[in-house]
Design a protein that fits this description.
The chain is about 25% helix and about 35% strand. The protein has about 400 residues and is α+β, with helices and mostly antiparallel strands.
Length: about 400
Amino acid sequence: MRSIVAVTNEMDDAENAVADLLRQIEEKGPLGKNSLGMVYCDVEVSHEDLIAALQEKFPFDVVGCTSIATFDTENGAQIISIVLVVLTGDDVEFSSAVTGVLTAENLRPELEAAYQKAASPLSDPSKLIFLIPPFMDAIPLDDYVDILSELSGDTPVFGGLPSSNVADGDILMYASGRPCNDRAAIVLVGGGIRPVFSVQNVLSAYTEQKYIVTKANRNIIYTVDDMPFTDYLRSVGMSVDELIAQGDLAVYVSTPLRVNLSKNNYNDGIPVVRTIKTLNPLDGSGVLFGAISEKSAVSIAALKRQDIQGSCNMAIKEIGEKIAAAGDGYTYTTLLCVSCGGRYMVMADDKDIEGRIIVENLPKGLTLSGFYAYGEICPTAFRDGKAVNRIHNESIVMCAL
């Protein structure tokens, strides 16, 4: 398999943008027998025109989403851009499907139907699942990943939640030639691939002491050590009243929760990061960008510039080491990267730092593509050949193919 990355900064005219992307793909071709397109773009574009034209011009499925910023091989990280990566080869298979309109009640049957539809054309079981869910408060991101893991026998799941760099801007996923805010797209990849992954969320300590979650439901945390969550935050020195008064995501990003999840015996103790989304002064609960389970251990972390730089360096270093260890003459061609929008916010006037680090250390022969997300999806580990798929916040995740 190989990959081709095309980039355009044409935001005002969808037809010209698609023509520019098509020209670059044709120049860098040829395409193999099977191909898949993934597109990530700024929200300041005519989504319906762009996605419809992309799907019309390209003889393969195109999926994607809006994003705060994008990654590509030439520019690193940038805004006001459209990035299209085409995965193509004779020895690889791609099969995509889109759910119907999702609710908390129909998520499982809709995901199961989409998974079965995508799986049926493949000659062998898939080795990787790309997931692009909608941005919906009613459904925790973890639910998508847990269901797909169960349906697939713990096949690795990779992807991210769409984001927006404009307040109240459209947050959309793309599939089947149209933008959506209430459906999920999945792509099953089979054939000659050996995906390797890296997850990094190195954080400074705000408080070292760990406490135990005593009451939680999905992505809502009610009590920690039997005290209301807001009281726990006060006990470790956080200004809860000020946080509630400001009520902006940016004020929560710099002090996320470090969590050792206790979901079940098989996956016990997997460390992840959870960003606080809102706090409820009435019952003292907090809503998180990601699920949390009772009996999990939590502490307060601090996200700083040096953490972002350090974890990005660690991620690209780990990917390079895994590629070098592959052996058997297997060649990697593609690096897919999803980083947290919170990391992008924290970097303030140096927002392209992650892009620069990745491009400067990109293993030879690899392309780079990806986006900034409101939730990152990537395995944390493999046990008995099965992926431990997890949702992450304030992390950077990578997949090499």
